[in-house]
């Protein structure tokens, strides 16, 4: 009989679990599951070296190990701290941890525009979930938020740096999945930004589209799908395609409405991490139902807004215009944007502090 | 007169050059260490000396060296941290500018002790002229057989390289320094693993301050036991203090760590008191990131004893009533200085220098700066003071590297000891723009109940 591997006994919030040496506290907690799992915004189990930056996964180590029972002096990032035998960790049972986490969420939201109503990530945003769970409703920040210009990095990806929380996941993705990373962090402090050097395009490699999936917020979005539909109006379906790229698993989720495919993403687990990465051809170019073998509906967490909309099937209304108008084509009498005082596409709502007022929009000459 | 170990020959003309340095007893310690001692004996001497890291944290150097992992077949590195960026600290510049061979000798002995054959001096970019001085000295040492292959026939090889930084405070943090040295963005690494196990190019590395490495030379010269007789208690040896601010004689002083703070500020041998007959209001005894102390707590501890210039005494009372030795950047504020403005200027510095890697420091430092700017400009609210306290509390201890703490401590200490000055700024916004709060009660004899 082979010698059994020694397992470390760990207690997280008084729940015992046995894990292999070298496991991080976060992964040990994920083995327990449920409420004791610390949230993570920057850690990504598929990406080496990620984690430790966002500080939302801070936990208290109340007992270091069996051999050295001293508690750790500071809160530690559970995603990067490995367990020791006999370690005792307090997550939701420690008021200190909850307080620190509240602080971190407040910090993350300081410069994040609260423009969820016009953000394409709404409904599947990790930061939205995190602030719903741990944040406070008001902000104590009374200053201008930092803003950046939107940037097209390549044909398929839109970068809206204003929303970025600098988790570095996309940098690690490009480093580890593609052979030539084109983007990174420029600058430092709260004015540091994800960008490409001298506006280089990111479309050089076939796996760069995965940065969209790993982005926890709406900073990197799919240009072929953004603003086409809200995620909760779409129905996620597991689908399969025999992809020619040997590194692509071909297992995806199609976001459909009726027979129309609006978006293709990788399959994400309950921690928002993809199960396996997919190539750009699958993601951006295969949007016809005949490209895919559909496996069945995707399971969506019960609390997710995506599962709320039961928009089953699609009943396209009959085209009645031709009949009503006796075969004539309708004429456009006026464009609402030329007469309306508000809701002008030239004004970027995310750059306005607080709610938009009519005086945030330029007045049209002659029309008052 | 205080005894000197590092700067005792600094006044000799031409000591910067090899010939003069050698004639005045230079490289004697290196000769002694390389020819008559083993590496372990050198480490043992340093342990016996009780030398503590001079970069700020004050960690015992001998202990740090003994943590260095020594796997077979893996090179080990020594890195000299000359990225002296803490506002108020300029002692390393002085050492490197006037005694470059002292540093090189210290590096040689330390590298020998640690078994490192490649050693780097990481120097901040703003010290633009010093790499030339160091490189000239390194070339001279090469010429005279103190560097290179088979040094002085002992079989030990060593090369020293000078690497310039690009002007980032964060690169003074040891793991950020290593990243920068590797040619990457200077972001601190997440520890563990510590550099002693996986440092430069994933090899065991020791990072030491310039002054620490220079202090190894006198330790070998006079022996660890003799060295530990300098100073008091666990603060052994001499320490370079770079004094600045409202002083008659600002500059770099080498002190035997057995004098009191009062003596250091007022005696003619050192800073010579405060100019124009002004009174002392506050002081930051160890570089900008350590807590600021009002005059009364600076000169005497909360127990009523005179405060000494030692690691222990400056830290007496913890952060509630004490401060830290830090890197020895002694900043003195007289009664005309405004603590709010001063704190704002420090917060601005830390905001500018935050690397932006982890969220509390990236976002919190900017927030503190903006709130302090409001208070300074007469737009503050009473609740802002509590807000500042809350922000610093949520930064401290929750970040990857100590820069978060360094940004939080000055704000915390300023509010802790000078809360009434902040309140005065908020309550009298117009007056605060025209005049300063003045000395108030900050020099009154203790016991004064410290606010908060």
UniProtKB/TrEMBL annotation, chain A:
Name by which UniProt lists this protein: Fe-S-binding domain-containing protein
Name of one Pfam family that matches: NADH-G_4Fe-4S_3
Domain 4Fe-4S His(Cys)3-ligated-type stretches: 96-135
CDD domains with a match to the protein in the record: fer2
InterPro entries, sorted: 2Fe-2S_ferredoxin-like_sf, 2Fe-2S_ferredoxin-type, NADH_UbQ_OxRdtase_ferredoxin, NADH_UbQ_OxRdtase_Gsu_4Fe4S-bd, Prok_molybdopt-oxidoreductase
Keyword Membrane: yes
Compartments, as annotated in UniProt: Membrane
Any one Gene Ontology molecular-function term assigned to this protein's record: 2 iron, 2 sulfur cluster binding
SUPFAM superfamilies reported for this sequence: 2Fe-2S ferredoxin-like (SSF54292), 4Fe-4S ferredoxins (SSF54862)
Domain 2Fe-2S ferredoxin-type: 8-95
Region forming the signal peptide: none
Keyword vocabulary terms for this entry: 2Fe-2S, 4Fe-4S, Iron, Iron-sulfur, Membrane, Metal-binding, NAD, Translocase
Gene3D superfamilies noted in UniProt: 3.10.20.740, 3.30.70.20
Predominant location category: membrane
Keyword Lipoprotein part of the UniProt annotation: no
Source species of the chain: Chitinophaga barathri
A GO cellular component entry from the record: membrane
Stated family: Belongs to the complex I 75 kDa subunit family.
Cofactor(s) of this protein: [4Fe-4S] cluster; [2Fe-2S] cluster
Top-rank lineage group of the source organism: Bacteria
UniProtKB/TrEMBL annotation, chain B:
Alphabetical keyword list: 4Fe-4S, Flavoprotein, FMN, Iron, Iron-sulfur, Metal-binding, NAD, Oxidoreductase, Quinone, Translocase
Residue ranges occupied by any NADH-ubiquinone oxidoreductase 51kDa subunit iron-sulphur binding domain in the UniProt entry: 340-385
Organism the protein comes from: Chitinophaga barathri
Cofactor(s) the protein requires to work: FMN; [4Fe-4S] cluster
NCBIfam families recorded: nuoF_fam (TIGR01959), PRK13596.1 (NF010120)
Swiss-Prot/TrEMBL catalytic activity: a quinone + NADH + 5 H(+)(in) = a quinol + NAD(+) + 4 H(+)(out)
Family according to the record: Belongs to the complex I 51 kDa subunit family.
Domain of life: Bacteria
EC top class named in words: translocase
InterPro entries from the UniProt entry: NADH-UbQ_OxRdtase_51kDa_CS, NADH-UbQ_OxRdtase_suF, Nuo51_FMN-bd, Nuo51_FMN-bd_sf, Nuop51_4Fe4S-bd, Nuop51_4Fe4S-bd_sf
Job of this protein: NDH-1 shuttles electrons from NADH, via FMN and iron-sulfur (Fe-S) centers, to quinones in the respiratory chain.
EC nos: 7.1.1.-
Gene3D superfamilies: 3.10.20.600, 6.10.250.1450, NADH-ubiquinone oxidoreductase 51kDa subunit, NADH-ubiquinone oxidoreductase 51kDa subunit, iron-sulphur binding domain
Record-level Gene Ontology MF annotations: 4 iron, 4 sulfur cluster binding; FMN binding; metal ion binding; NAD binding; NADH dehydrogenase (ubiquinone) activity; oxidoreductase activity; quinone binding
Protein name (database record): NADH-quinone oxidoreductase subunit F
């Amino acid at each position: 009989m082979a010698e059994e591997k020694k397992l470390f006994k760990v207690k997280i919030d008084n729940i015992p679990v046995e894990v292999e040496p070298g496991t991080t506290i976060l992964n040990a907690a994920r083995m327990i599951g449920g409420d004791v799992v610390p949230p993570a915004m920057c850690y990504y189990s598929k990406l080496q070296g990620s984690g430790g930056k966002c500080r939302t996964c801070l936990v208290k180590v109340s007992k270091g190990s069996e051999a050295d029972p001293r508690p750790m002096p500071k809160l530690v990032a559970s995603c990067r701290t490995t367990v020791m035998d006999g370690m005792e960790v307090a997550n939701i049972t420690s008021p200190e941890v909850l307080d620190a986490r509240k602080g971190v969420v407040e910090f993350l939201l300081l410069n994040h525009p609260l423009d969820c109503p016009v953000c394409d990530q709404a409904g599947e945003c990790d930061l939205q979930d995190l602030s719903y769970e741990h944040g406070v409703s008001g902000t104590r920040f009374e200053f201008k938020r930092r803003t950046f210009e939107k940037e097209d990095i390549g044909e398929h990806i839109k970068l809206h740096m204003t929303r970025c929380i600098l988790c570095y996941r996309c940098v690690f993705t490009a480093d580890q999945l593609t052979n030539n990373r084109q983007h990174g962090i420029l600058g430092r402090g709260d004015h540091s930004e994800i960008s490409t050097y001298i506006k280089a395009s990111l479309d050089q490699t076939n796996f760069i589209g995965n940065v969209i999936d790993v982005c926890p917020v709406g900073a990197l979005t799919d240009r072929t799908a953004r603003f086409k539909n809200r995620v909760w109006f779409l129905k996620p379906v597991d689908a399969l395609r025999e992809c020619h790229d040997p590194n692509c698993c071909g297992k995806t989720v199609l976001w459909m409405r009726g027979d129309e495919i609006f978006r293709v993403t990788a399959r994400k687990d309950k921690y928002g991490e993809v199960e396996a990465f997919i190539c750009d051809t699958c993601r951006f170019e295969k949007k016809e139902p005949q490209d895919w073998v559909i496996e069945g509906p995707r399971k969506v967490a019960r609390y997710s807004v995506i599962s709320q909309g039961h928009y089953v099937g699609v009943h396209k209304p009959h085209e009645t215009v031709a009949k009503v108008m006796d075969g004539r084509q309708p004429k456009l009498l006026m464009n609402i944007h030329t007469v309306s005082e508000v809701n002008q596409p030239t004004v970027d709502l995310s750059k306005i502090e607080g709610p938009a007022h009519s005086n945030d929009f330029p007045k049209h000459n002659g029309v008052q | 007169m205080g005894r000197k170990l590092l700067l005792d020959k600094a006044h000799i003309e031409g000591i910067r050059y090899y010939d003069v340095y050698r004639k005045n007893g230079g490289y004697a310690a290196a000769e002694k260490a390389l020819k008559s001692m083993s590496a372990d004996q050198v480490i043992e001497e340093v342990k016996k000396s009780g030398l503590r890291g001079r970069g700020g944290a004050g960690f015992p150097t001998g202990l740090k060296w003994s943590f260095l992992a020594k796997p077979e077949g893996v090179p080990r590195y020594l890195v000299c941290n000359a990225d002296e960026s803490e506002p108020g600290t300029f002692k390393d510049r002085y050492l490197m500018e006037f005694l470059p061979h002292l540093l090189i000798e210290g590096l040689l002995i330390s590298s020998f002790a640690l078994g490192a054959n490649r050693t780097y001096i990481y120097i901040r970019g703003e010290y633009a002229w010093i790499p030339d001085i160091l490189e000239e000295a390194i070339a001279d040492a090469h010429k005279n057989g103190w560097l290179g292959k088979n040094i002085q026939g002992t079989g030990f090889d060593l090369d020293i390289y000078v690497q310039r930084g690009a002007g980032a405070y964060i690169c003074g943090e040891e793991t950020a320094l290593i990243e920068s040295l590797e040619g990457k963005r200077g972001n601190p690494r997440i520890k563990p693993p510590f550099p002693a196990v996986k440092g430069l190019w994933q090899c065991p590395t020791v990072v030491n301050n310039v002054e620490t490495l220079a202090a190894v030379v006198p330790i070998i010269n006079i022996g660890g036991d003799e060295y530990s007789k300098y100073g008091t208690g666990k603060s052994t040896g001499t320490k370079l203090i770079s004094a600045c601010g409202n002083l008659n004689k600002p500059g770099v002083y080498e002190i035997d760590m057995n004098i009191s703070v009062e003596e250091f500020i007022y005696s003619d041998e050192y800073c010579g008191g405060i100019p124009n007959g002004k009174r002392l209001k506050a002081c930051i005894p160890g570089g900008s990131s350590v807590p600021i102390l009002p005059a009364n707590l600076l000169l005497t501890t909360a127990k009523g004893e005179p405060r000494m210039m030692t690691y222990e005494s400056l830290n007496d009372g913890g952060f509630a009533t004490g401060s830290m030795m830090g890197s020895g950047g002694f900043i003195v504020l007289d009664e005309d200085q405004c603590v709010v403005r001063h704190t704002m200027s420090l917060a601005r510095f830390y905001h500018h220098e935050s690397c932006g890697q982890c969220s509390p420091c990236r976002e919190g430092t900017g927030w503190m700066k903006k709130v302090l700017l409001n208070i300074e400009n007469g737009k503050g609210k009473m609740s802002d003071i509590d807000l500042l306290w809350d922000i610093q509390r949520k930064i401290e201890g929750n970040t990857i590297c100590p820069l978060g703490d360094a940004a939080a401590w000055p704000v915390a200490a300023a509010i802790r000891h000078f809360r009434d000055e902040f309140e005065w700024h908020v309550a009298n916004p117009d007056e605060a723009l025209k005049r300063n709060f003045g000395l108030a009660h900050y020099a009154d004899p203790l016991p004064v109940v410290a606010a908060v």
